[in-house]
Amino acid sequence: MASALVRFEGVRKSYAPGQWAVHELDLDVRQGELLTLLGPSGSGKTTTLMMLAGFELPSEGRILLEGRDIAKLPPHKRGIGVVFQSYALFPHMNVAQNVAFPLEVRGIGRAEREERVRKALATVRLDGFAERRPSQLSGGQQQRVALARAMVFEPPIVLLDEPLGALDKALREEMQFEIRALHQRLGITMMYVTHDQAEALTLSDRIAVFSQGRIAQLATPRGMYDDPQNAFVAGFIGENNLLPGKVRSVTDGVATVALDCGPEVVGRVVDAGGPGSDCWLAIRPERVAVAPVEAEALGEGALPGKLQEAIFQGDHTRLRVTLGNGGEIVAKRPAGGGALPDPGGPAALAWSEGDARVFRR
Ligand code: ADP
Ligand code: MG
Predict the structure, then answer these.
(1) For 157-180, how does the pLDDT look when each residue is reduced to its tens digit (9 = 90+)?
(2) Of 71, 143, 202, 232, whose CB is crowded by the most CB atoms within 10 A?
């Protein structure tokens, strides 16, 4: 396994007594990886990044960079590159001067400085923009300058806090591919913060999902999607129907669940208590089959539903189906997927047992 470049050990951070912005953090960032911190607003992502950069101090625990405790080092001695959402470029300097700044601070001579700036600008595809002022650049270009400035002094790790948050959707997606390509080409270690799960899935080698100052799960994008370990991650990554119920019985890792809306269903136990305990049954919309018939006609295990509405989305249709007494399931039907139930008509639901997961509630 690749060695840890950065290690958070039992790190906690409180800004106000009794309130933990970061509750308990043990995390390794591996050499060369792009690790994303993904989570809702207020879950502790920025605080984590700022503690590594040195702008915030942990209340407890240690942070190691290349094996050394960096608690006592001020930000500029840590030599870490940082990119923020707001570009934070110096408006009175041109592009080349902005990118040269970290080199100047480090006392690097003019000739080498110019060579490194030229290379850094080429890396972010901004050759020819050296003389421009930040105000003469688009948002995407400004963010590329910020990236060049964060990388030009060859830091061991670059931290990026929602760097694409201010860009429109098309540009954001283009920049995601660019950052990914840059990361792969240069092999530079990056720690990336976002609240956008699609962005995290696109960019990351690994994702740490944050919830209330803790890591809810740490996994590859694929692993996170295919194998969520708890209801929070199941609901946060991709889409999931989460139906509340109670565990009836468990046999060989498969639970029978009495849904609060009535029907009994089975699902694979991921993390659940014994009989009688509250649980969620999670099933992804693309795993739900919907047929325009009564449940009996579909065979054993099919559930009786009623179509509320079918919403055309181009490449797929979203079906909103009511189930039992007050339950609701969303199903995704790819374009050309056969006859649809009529709104108000019967919509029998079925899925493979292995696709339904049972989580603690
Ligand atoms: P995220 O980046 O995931 O949105 P933050 O790390 O910014 O989350 O915030 C985590 C928690 O810490 C939030 O409850 C936030 O209000 C609080 N917090 C963040 N920065 C400060 C600060 N400088 N002073 C007081 N509370 C803060
Ligand atoms: Mg933040």
Answers:
(1) 999 999 998 888 888 998 899 899
(2) 143
